[in-house]
């Protein structure tokens, strides 16, 4: 155990003593939380700094995540665990405390690709893909964002046209997580079928990635999410059987329904990164001495630590509230936007404050803080930027759309 790990282990009980979250959780939720914490601490944390440096995603851990029940855990049937929303959120928090890339993987696999198939797929599609994905034997990706589209999916240019008994998909997507590793891609495309009922309508298609014309190229040069994989994807005359379409998804409500699942996980996950940064700063404030005493004995440092803890507590309690709403079927998109906006924005502020407390050592990989801060810049951008979520909330408040 390194000195940094020892510091974090020593300060965790201090944080827990101030913030008694366990009292608000069920035994089942605590069991899921503890399982995810062990996996994160034992399998991800010891190697994540080197993986970040090497731009390496450990695919061998995918099956382990499946065996532990994390993949599509909020779904029921087809080998999925059928866990509650709060249990899923706690797993996201613990994984992101290790690295945002691993929470992102669970989100892409479970909340996006598996949720799309589970919500909108035929029974045959569910049986074909979901059991293997839940077990970690198969990987899925979710191809929505386009090079020029960004926050405007209605401007989609990827098309699907009918040719006899087949669909032919052409176009391009960007920033598609896991695409070069995936076995199946959930692809959203506008139907090009003059005179047909679906002409110009966005529909979802299941595309086995071995299909000729499908190409996924990992994006290089990333300074964030380096232990994760995001790709440019092209579709060049990709031919699919007629039954490749997801029958239950018509229009943008289809992908948005999946995006809200992923955004919910981010509300929890970002607080995991924030907690990790707080633990690093707190441990260092106790162990590092300047001018003959620990830096944590200074009022300015204690004020920073107190503010960081307050925001972690507020963020987790908000996530818990949203989780209970979700379990009752009462969670709204605007409420998810409140959570995503707050959690990621405050997690970044905590990361920056922690870096300052760590002083010069804070920019090294002896501590996870700079890695978390870099990753959180991606989390802040995907699944809706701050500005998009502000507009969602503003629309809910005023009844007026400013998009």
UniProtKB/TrEMBL annotation:
GO terms (BP aspect): fatty acid beta-oxidation using acyl-CoA dehydrogenase; fatty-acyl-CoA biosynthetic process
Biological pathway: Amino-acid metabolism; lysine degradation; Amino-acid metabolism; tryptophan metabolism
Domain Acyl-CoA dehydrogenase/oxidase C-terminal: 256-397
Gene3D superfamilies: Acyl-CoA dehydrogenase/oxidase, N-terminal domain, Butyryl-CoA Dehydrogenase, subunit A, domain 2, Butyryl-CoA Dehydrogenase, subunit A, domain 3
Domain of life where this protein originates: Bacteria
Cofactor: FAD
Catalytic activity: glutaryl-CoA + oxidized [electron-transfer flavoprotein] + 2 H(+) = (2E)-butenoyl-CoA + reduced [electron-transfer flavoprotein] + CO2
Domain Acyl-CoA oxidase/dehydrogenase middle residues, every copy: 141-238
Enzyme class name: oxidoreductase
UniProt keywords, alphabetically: FAD, Flavoprotein, Oxidoreductase, Transit peptide
Pfam families, sorted: Acyl-CoA_dh_1 (PF00441), Acyl-CoA_dh_M (PF02770), Acyl-CoA_dh_N (PF02771)
Protein name (Swiss-Prot/TrEMBL): glutaryl-CoA dehydrogenase (ETF)
Organism field: Agromyces binzhouensis
């Amino acid at each position: 155990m390194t000195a940094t790990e020892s510091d974090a282990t020593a300060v965790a009980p201090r944080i827990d003593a101030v913030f008694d979250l366990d009292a608000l959780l069920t035994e089942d939720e605590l069991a899921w939380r503890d399982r995810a914490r062990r996996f994160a601490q034992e399998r991800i944390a010891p190697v994540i700094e080197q993986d970040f440096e090497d731009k390496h995603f450990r695919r061998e851990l995918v099956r382990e995540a499946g065996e532990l029940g994390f993949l599509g855990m909020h779904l029921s049937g087809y080998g999925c665990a059928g866990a509650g929303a709060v249990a899923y959120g706690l797993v996201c928090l613990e994984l992101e405390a290790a690295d945002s890339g691993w929470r992102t993987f669970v989100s892409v696999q479970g909340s996006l690709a598996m949720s799309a198939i589970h919500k909108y797929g035929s029974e045959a599609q569910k049986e074909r893909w979901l059991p293997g994905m839940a077990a970690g034997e198969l990987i899925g990706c979710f191809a929505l964002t386009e090079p020029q589209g960004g926050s405007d999916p209605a401007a989609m240019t990827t098309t699907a046209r009918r040719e006899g008994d087949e669909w032919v998909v052409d176009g391009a997507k960007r920033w598609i997580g896991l695409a070069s590793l995936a076995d199946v891609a959930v692809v959203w495309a506008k139907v090009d079928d003059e005179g047909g009922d679906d002409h110009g309508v966005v529909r979802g298609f299941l595309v086995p990635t071995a299909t000729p014309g499908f190409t996924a190229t990992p994006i290089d040069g990333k300074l964030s999410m380096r232990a994760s994989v995001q790709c440019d994807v092209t579709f060049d005359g990709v031919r699919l059987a007629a039954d490749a379409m997801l029958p239950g998804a018509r229009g943008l409500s289809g992908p948005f329904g999946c995006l809200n699942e992923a955004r919910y996980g981010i509300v929890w996950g970002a607080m995991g990164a924030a907690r990790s940064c707080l633990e690093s700063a707190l441990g260092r404030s106790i162990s590092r001495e300047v001018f003959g005493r620990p830096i944590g004995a200074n009022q300015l440092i204690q004020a920073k630590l107190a503010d960081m803890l307050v925001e972690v507590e507020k963020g987790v309690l908000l996530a818990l509230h949203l989780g209970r709403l979700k379990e009752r079927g009462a969670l709204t998109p605007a409420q998810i936007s409140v959570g995503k906006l707050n959690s990621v924005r405050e997690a970044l502020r905590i990361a920056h404050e922690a870096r300052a407390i760590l002083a010069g050592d804070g920019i090294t990989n002896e501590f996870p803080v700079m890695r978390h801060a870099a990753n959180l810049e991606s989390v802040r951008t995907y699944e809706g930027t701050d500005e998009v979520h502000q507009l969602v909330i503003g629309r809910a408040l005023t009844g007026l759309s400013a998009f």
